[in-house]
What does this fold into?
Amino acid sequence: MTQAQVKTIPVVDYLCLDGGEPKLTALVCDACGAHYFDHREACASCSSSGPFTRADLPRTGRVGAFTIVHRAANGVRTPFVSAVVYLDDGTAVRANVVNCAPSPEQVHLHMRVRLVTFELGTDSEGTCAIGFGFEPA
It folds into this structure.
């Protein structure tokens, strides 16, 4: 299979790989502006039944909370950094901080980060799953 024939799919619905740089998208409540990554019938913030509009999110933000994980399920490499990232528009997203050492000397609160994507694996039909994380900006 040639590189042009490789099919890529995002590991989550809110990771957009189409048209230029990868980005995250969210559903935004038209009534109050709350952001959601999953399907909504009603807003948890204002109880509105919609509508919700899909919006592109900033690719950069700051680490708002993090932990260095040393124990995980079998097959998961440790240690790694799990974080809550507050994007530049205030939207919170949970993701790993990647491309840096998993240590308090390298990762800190309020650290500037940017969205990155990476291959998670390829199935027997050649479809490659793409994940996301944030790296130091």
About this structure: The beta strands are 7-10, 15-16, 23-29, 35-36, 52-56, 60-69, 80-87, 92-97, 112-122, 127-136. The chain has one domain: 3-136. The chain has a mean pLDDT of 93.
